[in-house]
Amino acid sequence: MKTFVARHIAVLVAASLAAMAAVGPLSAQTLDKMRLGYSGTGLNNYVLEMGRRAGIFRKNGLDLEVVYVNSGSLLNQALIAGTFDVSFSQGSESMLAKLRGADMRITAVIANRFNHVYLTAPTITSIKQLKGKKVAVSRFGSGSHFQSNLALKEGGLDPDKDVTVLQIGNSGARMAAILSGTVDGTIIAADFVPRAKKEGFNIVADLADSKIDYPFLSLNMMGSYIDRNPKMVKALIKGMAESITVLQTDTNAAKAVVRSVLRTDDIETADYATMRSIQVLARRPFPTPAGIQTVLDELGKEPKAKSSKFEDFVDLRALKELDREGAFK
Q1: Where are the beta strands (DSSP E) in 151-273?
Q2: pLDDT of residue 26
Q3: What is the pTM of this model?
Q4: Region 103-116: what's the mean pLDDT?
Q5: Residue 185 falls within a domain, yes or no?
Q6: Domain of residue 87, CATH code
Q7: CA end-to-end span of the chain, whole Å?
């Protein structure tokens, strides 16, 4: 079944990549081609869009092809199958793959804090009131599932027994599900907070307030790819850091990117999303031991989790070289 799914993803993504390649000719400059798949909405879109608009990735020698996959767990399968060179999603997804035998490594973490909130229907004002209700995640084993479990446990519920978990899709799909009454609660990207409040829904938990370290948004690659392409790994991380710098220092450019990505002219939404980006994104994108431990604690049921350590999940060679070169100053 996994092989079939991976092949199906590869066919769909190949078609998307071919369509993207037909958009226009490449620059005369010699660029290294890299295929990046990403999941989720919000922060990763802003960083990628800023890098594209400002020509930051091309300036660093990369012709970066970007394709969206609507679940981190599906994205993992595509990365393992070789459809992508890098996945841009939550670190918990990469760590779960590593615990289950794939040589997937985190090469950088551009956000070491949560950025999601827990949203509930207007009649529900606390997480405990979700007992016996339906809640949404993107897919089982995804970063949204991981965060949902944390929020539910923090609110006093057992996510395996007290709620029915439905696989709905990304934050936009989960927002639609709660608006329609299909579910009573969901973890969701913070960018949707202004709209949710206008609709009368409740934010019963803001995970950013927890101050818990967590590899919220990471660059994940297979070990063999890192070994073969150290220059390209460095170029991607450097480009990400430079994109983040622009987002955090040029408010007008940042808001333009947010409005474009979210396809909205709502001032409150653009202001709120920009503010969260400034708070959460890290210009010096090192993973933290505490963040890796947060994931290991939650994945305690995995046979190898208790004996694993920070070094098992990260590859810091490119980051350390860039740091020595002053790339993050």
Answers
A1: 164-167, 185-189, 202-206, 213-222
A2: 42
A3: 0.82
A4: 94
A5: yes
A6: 3.40.190.10
A7: 47
Sign of the C-alpha dihedral computed for residues 236, 22, 25 and 263 taken in this order: negative
Does residue 295 share a domain with residue 157? Answer: no
How far is 241 from 233, CA to CA, in rounded Å?
Answer: 13
Is 195 in the same domain as 253? no
Other C-beta atoms lying within 10 Å of the C-beta of residue 289: 12
Question: What's the domain range around 281?
Answer: 2-7+32-113+213-324
Residue 131 main-chain phi, psi, to 5 deg: -60, 125
pLDDT per residue as tens digits for the range 10-56: 444 444 444 444 444 444 469 999 999 998 778 899 999 999 999 99
Q: Could you tell me whether strands 202-206 and 104-113 are parallel, antiparallel, or unpaired per DSSP bridges?
A: unpaired
Rounded-to-integer distance, Cα 260 and Cα 112, Å = 25
Q: How many domains does the chain contain in total?
A: 2
> Among the three residues 176, 210, 244, which one is the final residue of a domain in this structure?
210
Same domain flag for 239 and 310: yes
Q: What percent of the chain has pLDDT over 90?
A: 68
pLDDT for 29 equals 65
Q: Does 225 lie in the same domain as 109?
A: yes
Instruction: Specify the range with the lowest mean pLDDT, choosing from 68-72, 197-201, 284-288.
Output: 68-72
3-state secondary structure 161-181: CCCEEEECCCHHHHHHHHHHC
In this predicted model, what pLDDT tens digit does every residue of 210-238 receive, in sequence order?
A: 888 999 999 999 999 999 999 999 999 99
pLDDT tens, residue by residue, 165-191: 999 988 888 999 999 999 999 998 888
Identity of residue 227: D
Same domain, 218 and 314: yes
